[in-house]
């Protein structure tokens, strides 16, 4: 999905944004998330973001701590097929 793709640029009205940002995380435990809700959840989190690497772009090596304080580098996390690293924002944290 690239920035010129209409799906990527999707903006949600504020009521729908609040709804998916609240309800979708609650559904994680059940594993039953409607695909349309998931797409809206991703769109609500990105909300027109224009920064960051584009899909397929190589990122520089990094070191970040996990929830237990252990540092991990890109090289330690990346497998033979690469790495999908997702950062999410939540008002529930």
In short:
The chain is mainly alpha-helical. Helices cover 32% and strands 6% of the residues.
* Tertiary shape: globular
Low-pLDDT ranges: none
Helix coverage percent: 25-40%
What structural category arises from helix and sheet content? mainly alpha
Major sheet: order of its strands? 1-2
Overall mean pLDDT = 79
Q: In whole angstroms, how far apart are the ends?
A: 28 Å
- What's the tally of helices? 3
Rg of Cα set:
15 Å
Q: Provide the succession of SSEs.
A: HHEEH
Beta-strand segment tally = 2
- Major sheet: 2 strands, antiparallel
Strand content: 5-15%
Provide tags for this entry.
two-stranded antiparallel ribbon; 3 helices; 93 residues
Describe this structure in words.
The chain has 93 residues and is mainly α. 32% of the residues lie in helices and 6% in strands. It has 3 helices and 2 strands; from the N terminus they run ααββα. It has a two-stranded antiparallel sheet with strand order 1-2. Strand 1 and strand 2 form a beta hairpin. Helix 1 packs across helix 2. It is globular and about 40 Å long. The model has no long low-confidence stretch (mean pLDDT 79).
Please render the helix and strand layout as text:
Elements (H helix, E strand, L loop, with lengths): L13 H14 L7 H12 L16 E3 L5 E3 H4 L16
Antiparallel strand pairs: 1-2
Helix pairs in contact: 1-2
């Amino acid at each position: 999905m690239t920035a010129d793709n209409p799906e990527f640029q999707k903006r949600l009205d504020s009521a729908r944004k609040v709804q998916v940002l609240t309800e979708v995380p609650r559904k994680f435990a059940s594993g039953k998330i409607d695909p349309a809700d998931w797409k809206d959840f991703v769109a609500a989190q990105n909300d027109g973001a224009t920064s960051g690497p584009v899909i397929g772009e190589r990122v520089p090596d990094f070191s970040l701590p996990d929830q237990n304080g252990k540092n991990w580098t890109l090289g330690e996390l990346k497998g033979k097929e690469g790495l999908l690293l997702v950062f999410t924002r939540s008002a529930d944290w």
